[in-house]
Task: inverse folding
């Protein structure tokens, strides 16, 4: 039995050790520490022959760290064929000298999967420090690509908001004071038109983010299941809360880049309050999702309302924090 036959047999008869974590945008130290502890725990509790996959969920992509062949057995067959052609054999019959692969899959249309062989499974167990640095170096490259995708998404939102804000100004300017008060519910002096139109534009973009996230949860996570059923499945539940974290970061980075791109002190302030806002969002989302999970009649409209109830207050808090800081 050659190595790929051994690996196929092992994967078919042995449970795969899996682990996952969410990569916080731009928090390099935290992401490195989490990756280090996750891989270290694996090497302490398993052995080099254990099939494993570590998934890293990012805002606009997902990464996977696994032995070559676990994600696509054909890749291992191609690799061993090339090794035999070059060296005669990849390893003796008793050794699994498997390359360790880092894979990157962006959540964009027509995106192709990228992957790099960075070290071997044996090296991870026998020379952890050196092997880990090779893994981390590639993970850092892919997380930077993910960050670029996040920045691109946010830039598009900001550009759109800057296009529609003048339209709000025009619409409000065309109204009489009485019509304006009737439409928005309070008196709005001409001097406040531009500021209020910017507020409306921000709300427009935030609602677009919320709508997209709720639709993803409905179509890609819940599907034909009841919400409660989906939340009882670990993978679907984790993906749902990953969707919530992504929504948070889309909104947070929208305000951060739009209002603090050239204001280092404001940027520092927003990043300072970010952990508290994220923690509060998660607590609120957990409570609201738990309520929905006990309602067998949960519909897409219910999810839309839940996402709105969780994230519109976040938008208001960010807007208020920026206004307070600037005044």
Result:
């Amino acid at each position: 039995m050659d190595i790929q036959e051994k690996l196929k047999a092992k994967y078919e008869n042995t449970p795969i050790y899996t682990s996952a974590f969410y990569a916080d945008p731009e928090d390099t130290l935290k992401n490195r520490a989490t990756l280090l502890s996750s891989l270290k725990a694996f090497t302490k509790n398993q052995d080099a022959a254990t099939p494993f996959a570590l998934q890293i969920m990012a805002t606009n992509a997902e990464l996977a760290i696994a032995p070559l062949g676990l994600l696509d057995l054909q890749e291992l067959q191609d690799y061993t064929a090339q090794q035999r052609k070059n060296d005669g054999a990849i390893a003796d019959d008793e050794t699994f000298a498997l390359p360790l692969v880092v894979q990157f899959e962006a959540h964009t249309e027509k995106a192709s999967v990228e992957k790099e062989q960075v070290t071997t499974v044996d090296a991870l167990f026998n020379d952890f420090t050196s092997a880990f640095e090779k893994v981390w170096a590639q993970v850092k490259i892919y997380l930077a690509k993910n960050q670029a995708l996040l920045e691109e998404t946010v830039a598009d939102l900001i550009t759109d908001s800057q296009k529609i804000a003048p339209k709000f100004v025009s619409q409000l300017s065309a109204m009489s004071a009485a019509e304006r008060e009737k439409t928005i519910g309070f008196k709005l002096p001409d001097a406040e038109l531009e500021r209020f139109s910017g507020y409306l534009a921000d709300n427009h973009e935030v609602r677009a983010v919320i709508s997209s996230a709720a639709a993803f949860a409905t179509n890609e996570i819940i599907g034909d299941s009841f919400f409660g059923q989906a939340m009882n499945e670990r993978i679907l539940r984790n993906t749902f809360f990953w969707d919530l974290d992504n929504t948070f970061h889309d909104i947070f980075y929208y305000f951060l880049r739009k209002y603090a791109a050239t204001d280092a002190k404001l940027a520092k302030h927003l990043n300072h309050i970010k952990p508290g806002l994220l923690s509060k969002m998660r607590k609120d989302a957990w409570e609201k999702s738990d309520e929905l999970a006990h309602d067998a009649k949960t519909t897409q409209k219910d999810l839309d309302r839940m996402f709105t109830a969780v994230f519109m207050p976040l938008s208001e808090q960010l807007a208020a924090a920026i206004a307070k800081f600037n005044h």
In short: The CA atoms of residues 277 and 315 lie 10 Å apart. The first helix runs from residue 3 to 13.
